[in-house]
Design brief:
The two termini are about 30 Å apart. The chain has 9 helices and 12 strands. Helix 1 links the parallel strand 1 and strand 2. A 12-stranded mixed sheet has the order 7-8-9-6-5-4-3-2-1-10-11-12. By secondary structure, the protein is an alpha/beta fold. The longest helix is centred in the N-terminal third of the chain and has 13 residues. The chain has a single domain, classed as TIM Barrel. Bound molecules: S-adenosylmethionine and iron/sulfur cluster. S-adenosylmethionine (SAM) binds next to strand 3 and strand 5. Iron/sulfur cluster binds next to loops.
Length: about 325
């Protein structure tokens, strides 16, 4: 089958699948008041629905799946979800983004189930600042989990830190110490405006380019962009084991490298994180015999993917916060 491509020639080998909208953290930029179930929202996809969904995307050339949320580890059957995803023919990279609260306790089970890449959100290396941002004083245990993942030889271990002006934007020296001897990929993510966080965004948004200049001044070199690299800009330094990636959604050409699609926990296809609509795929996930119909439904919608998002104009689409879409 021909791999999925949009009107702008972009291909989509990568699917981010949210498996639950709920979360146990209260990150100031995402769910500052904690998770509250949306009235009338359907339950998350079942294991059978997930298996059918992933087979459909795999038939269209997808080979990397990222399990996300909300917080994926809040879902009781996470290990079964991972096993289900790993068993889909064609899936060779099974990643997960997590806040790390269960990492130190569950890492072994996740790896046994087929997880081979993990992104752990660590917005600050300062214990008090971490607690202020997330609402939970869990930094030490989460960092312990990161050490375990590295020691266990998980092929890809990355940390995500959202840059927040006046909160964690002075931590580069501390991060560099951390990266000197650790084979970790740190991703600095520029804060994105969502439907719910406008006031917070105005107070705390800082351009990632500020940090990028600091990195360049400290001798970090940009890596040549791989054709399938996605939107992150990667830096390395000969004196450091770790690498740094910059995710700057407000930068020119950010969307040109888009290589991913998203499906929400209830089975809505989102062509863009900040799109204006979702496309319900759940009706195509009820029987194994619906594979062709599912593939056609996805293929028939991809032409609606816009060339870029409209965040510069403050248009955040139907995304109140990233927990709802699977950030
Ligand atoms: N709960 C998991 C976690 O925090 O890692 C997975 C879901 S979370 C929505 C995925 C990623 O999106 C996290 O790294 C989080 O920091 C990031 N994120 C959430 N809201 C964001 C925003 N408004 N701007 C930039 N990144 C955001
Ligand atoms: Fe939860 Fe992740 Fe949102 Fe933080 S960023 S509130 S951990 S979903």
């Amino acid at each position: 089958m021909t791999p999925l491509a949009d009107r702008y020639g972009r291909r989509f080998p990568y699917l981010r699948l949210s498996i639950i909208p709920a979360c146990n953290f209260r990150c100031t930029y995402c769910l500052p008041h904690g998770y509250h179930a949306e009235a009338g929202l359907a339950g998350p996809l079942s294991l059978d629905e997930i298996a059918r969904l992933l087979r459909g995307f795999s038939a269209l050339g997808m080979h990397k799946v990222r399990i996300t949320g909300g917080e994926p580890s809040v879902r009781n059957d996470l290990v079964d979800v991972l096993r289900t995803a790993a068993a889909v023919p064609g899936v060779d990279k099974l990643a997960m983004t997590t806040n790390g609260t269960l990492l130190s306790r569950r890492l072994g089970e996740w790896m046994d189930a087929g997880l081979n890449a993990i992104n752990i959100s660590v917005d600050s290396l300062d214990r008090a600042a971490f607690a202020r941002i997330t609402g939970h004083d869990r930094l030490d245990d989460i960092l312990h989990g990161v050490e375990m993942a590295l020691a266990a030889g998980l092929p890809s271990v990355k940390l995500n830190a959202v840059l927040l002006r006046g909160v964690n934007d002075g931590e580069l020296p501390r991060w560099l110490d951390y990266l000197r001897d650790r084979r970790v990929g740190l991703r600095f993510i520029e804060l994105m405006q969502t439907g719910d966080n406008l006031a917070f965004f105005r107070d705390h948004h800082v351009r990632a380019s500020v940090l990028e200049s600091e990195l360049q001044d400290a001798g970090w070199q940009a890596l040549p962009r791989a054709a399938d690299a996605g939107p992150a800009r990667e830096y390395r330094h000969p004196d450091y084991a770790g690498r740094i990636g910059i995710i700057a959604p407000y930068s020119k050409d950010f969307c040109a490298g888009c290589n991913r699609l998203r499906v929400t926990a209830t089975g809505d296809l989102r062509l863009c994180l900040f799109g204006e609509f979702g496309i319900p795929l759940r009706p195509f996930l009820q029987h194994d015999e619906q594979l062709d119909a599912l593939v056609q439904a996805i293929g028939g919608q991809i032409g609606r993917k816009e060339q870029g998002h409209f965040l510069h104009e403050g248009r955040t689409g139907i995304t109140p916060h990233l927990a709802s879409t699977g950030g």
